Amino acid sequence: MSDTKIKQLLAELTLEEKAMLCTGKDFWNLHGIERLNLPSIMVTDGPHGLRKQAGEGDHVGLNAAVKATCFPTASGLAASWNTKLIEEMGVALGKECRAEDVSVLLGPGTNIKRNPLGGRNFEYFSEDPLLAGDMSAAWIKGVQSQGVGTSLKHYAVNNHEHCRMTVDAIVDQRTLREIYLPAFEKAVKQTQPWTVMCSYNKVNGTYAAEHKQLLDDILVKEWGFEGIIVTDWGANNDRVEGVKNGQHLEMPSSGDMNTKKIIAAVENGQLTIEALDKSVARVLELILNSQASLEANTVQVDLQAHHELAARIAEETCVLLKNDGLLPVSAGKKIAVIGALANSTRYQGAGSSKINPFKLEQPLDEIKKQFGADNVTYTAGYHLNDTEDSAEIAKAVELAKQADVVFLFAGLTPKYESEGFDRQHLNLPQVQLDLINALGEQLSKTVVVLQNGAPVLLPFVDKTAAILEAYLGGQAGASAVAKVLSGEVNPSGKLAETFPASLDDVPSQPYFPGTTKQVQYREAIWVGYRYFDTTNTETLFPFGHGLSYTNFTYYHLKLLSGDKTQFNESDSIKLKITITNTGDRAGAEVVQCYVGQKSPSQPRPAKELKAFEKIFLEPGESKEVMFKLDYRAFAYWHKEKAAWIAERGDYQIHIGSSVNDIRDTATIALETGIVAEQPNFALATYFDPAKRDFNDAAFSALLGYDIPTPTPITPYTVNSTLGDITNEPLGKPLFDDMLSVFTQMMGGDQNDSAAEADRLMAESMVADMPLRNLPVFNSQQYSEGQILQLIASLNNKETAN
Length: 801
What we know:
Blueprint: H1 3-12, H2 15-21, E1 43-45, E2 67-68, H3 74-80, H4 83-99, E3 104-106, H5 129-144, E4 149-155, E5 168-170, H6 173-180, H7 182-191, E6 195-198, E7 202-203, E8 206-207, H8 212-222, E9 228-231, H9 239-244, H10 257-267, H11 273-295, H12 303-317, E10 319-323, E11 335-338, E12 356-357, H13 363-371, E13 376-379, H14 390-402, E14 405-411, H15 430-439, E15 446-451, E16 466-469, H16 477-486, E17 499-500, E18 518-520, H17 529-534, E19 539-541, E20 552-559, E21 564-566, E22 572-581, E23 587-597, E24 608-617, E25 622-630, E26 636-638, E27 643-645, E28 649-658, E29 661-671, H18 684-687, H19 696-703, H20 722-725, H21 731-746, H22 752-768, H23 774-777, H24 784-800
Parallel strand pairs: 1-3, 2-12, 3-4, 4-6, 5-7, 5-18, 6-9, 11-13, 11-14, 14-15, 15-16, 21-29
Antiparallel strand pairs: 7-8, 10-16, 17-19, 20-22, 22-25, 23-24, 23-28, 26-27, 28-29
Helix pairs in contact: 1-11, 2-10, 3-12, 4-5, 4-12, 5-7, 12-16, 13-16, 14-15, 21-22
């Protein structure tokens, strides 16, 4: 959109209109200016489908949402390692948005999976920033190709749900740059999303919604972001400070509360009109970009074609974790299908991303289609509400004895993983474990099919013949599973996250999720496989792992630049390797390229993913895979120099089928002109992460300053949460009132497990809600003045005591 048009509109807008444009009109819509032909545009939830709400549009339940295609969630999408397929999904999402006059789809979720207990991990791609960035860029490219905007989220360091609205994430600058920002950086630089959504939390003492370093210095000035920065719903803290520091749009509507504050700030000189115009100009550009698509809206959506696309995607998200030869299962076998999830599938996550699918497959039905109904028997084996039932277990055991093969469906019901709260453990529900234990000798002919959004512990891993991770496969995930089990589809998914052998092995676990006011990222760069691989810690299944029904052989890794080269920031290194399908089935392999420095002066992982490619090969077919590694592939972030540094010396380039299955390695000597520094002995414990002695002194040295003291619970402020004051006589009625409001918002699902998840989510969200948000989410009952009076009364009581 031309600068001339924006300047013209800025000249015609009143101060009141400018202030108004910087906040939402209601829950999902932006303000328009009718006299200037600026429409009110709609934004709505994704990311794995369109969740457009009817009516008042402030509900999370399914019943109020339009019918749409429910694709696999991000944890599954990333397991495909197929960016072209994810882009194709984005195109379909964009078309469905266009058909419903939605201008911005809120996604993708790009945050790093710091810990497998993160309640929203199903909505995020990976523990690795390169893979997360590539997936995000592909998703955005697809959606925006249809003239629909996206909202890259949640920026930044939003890695758990507990107290997410006010918690302060304490993280050092190197870790921020190497782990938590690169996925956002890649997506911004490659695709220019129309919007970036800032997270609720503080980062090193400052709310993300007004964080100058994150918003203005890095996102806009350093990465060149051209779109608008929008708050997560209720993430605004100080509206005027937000405008000053690069936050352009507050969502949802706060009525005229913050509009008045912006006007007053301009009038009293606290905020310059130039600073306000920067925000307004970006909002105007978003509206104008959206207007073009709305006026040209001739999109016809073929939902059946999108269902078929969802099925193709789900096929590639399935990860074959283990196979002792039982899979694939040939026709004519007597099959026992066991597990309530086979007939009441878990196909998506819980929370604000819930999609109302226009059709939904069930695994039992699809297995009958695939293998013949006469060959298939079924029993639930357990109850989704976790009620123990010995009779049902006995029935399942008897059914298994009579079958040639058992397909046992297990996984996490909504109450175990959801937006709003974190998981308490990595276990499957006890009723499912009891069933599996009872099957005993039948496990040698059993395939366990998992439906879950994040890693689980599998104490039966050595007893069962095969394990298929289906993740949350969307509305067409059931047929994908059936085709993989039969061999019609050769599985090609690879884990985008480590499955730890024990929760205690996870390096962030002692600090996760922290206290109600602060979380310390003491493990620093030692996240996911970077820790497990470097320390040789045994895992249940490693990052990048996934089996196939065929075999792939890697030949002749060659560095095209030779094994020694001059290297600076504008240079790159090319390498190639040949992959051959040596089996008797067509299949796909994800070729993974890792880099490690041989003798680093700084703590560095043994391997870091720097490139990958998914290739499809017929039996006997070979393909040459080329990789190009730039300067960043060899560099670390130097805190003092505030720059990426690649030291001179030897680096190893590993090519493999997973981080633990390296097929070939080459060493290259880089002459970068940068001599290795003397190691900082204050960081000694970070050089030896296996000891996990990330003590106060070491963490302070990493930060470069003393560890901040967490914000005290009292005296109460506008950022005190309802959970903080719930035991106060004045606080309990507020908590109960808002719980009623949010419980109604969560409504819409009927089954017991989903209802339980909605209750837990509502309770968690209300407990974590800062008092400043009461006038935003319940403006009819609470004003800002009333909340300030309440806080004064609470603090007077504290003083009196």
